[in-house]
């Protein structure tokens, strides 16, 4: 398991970072499909009558342990991830916007979008457990553990097709208000979740091995579906089954306001949206979702408790279940059943201000509306960003400055040349400081009339 996870993280870290996909370009005053993905009301604000999206790709990773300079150090990455006493948090997130189309007709705007999503998350994992599994090495021989947090390893991949409609609901010479809605049909691909909560126990080092016992029973959830039933640490397992069968719906709603400055321009534009109101239903033939009581006590077979080194080469959750059941720590058998996973519902608020002609500055706020600790929840992050931009028509450039609750403050840069765009939310901070974030996005679209 160790080698597979580290290879996957290195692969993604070379691309990525942040969690605000297409930052800067998605709130441009050159309004297109990316704006509509952020807020469906923007479809009635399209800059051109028609727009076609060819592709849009965004990858990002955010963590609270590994800095950019650590990638060139001699220290093993697993040591860096599990150093200190602060719980480990990492979010790996990818999004691909496929062929999509939007049009504006009178006061209406319409859009059809396709999207693929994949994520892998580490949520509030105790670093002592990580050290004990990967290195069988503890700073002291006996370590007490007590946490009510739900420690999670979770992965998901799914596709979606969205149908959007927006309309201008009020307009005069100075003001304009638009509202929109997107109905998304969801195609769950794969899912995995390992959630350990209410852990109160002791890790003891005996010889070259670390053993875990519990002082009181903990709660353990193990769920998996699709290709992630076979492996949750290989990058290919997230991408080879992004689109499953139609099993879920979701909704985005939004509104925009413009203080106008001429027929098609504005001094100020503000928007608010709630995205991803819905859930995925996993009904694959290899679905399993079981909540166990985990009670690890010394036995004649295992007088020191559970040997954590047994998990060193594990690469799927079935193996985890098999080890725990074989050693008598789980009495219930895995439960084959369909289950539901909630999407990362988010509230977004933004404002775009014209400073002088062709120079704008955008403020953006994203607030998650669910708790990442829930076993049936896809995670998200809280973000606040400020983006100054210069828009010369055919060419546009911008500098996103953001802060999120996983990796802190980051500074990036991006540009648009015609329909092609390229950017990063963190390249400046990665090159000039010890950033704990890396990201990359690019795409191409064209507009007509």
From TrEMBL:
Signal is among the record's keywords: yes
Keywords, ordered alphabetically: Signal
Keyword Signal part of the UniProt annotation: yes
Signal peptide per UniProt: 1-18
Protein name: DUF5723 domain-containing protein
Protein species of origin: Flavobacterium aureirubrum
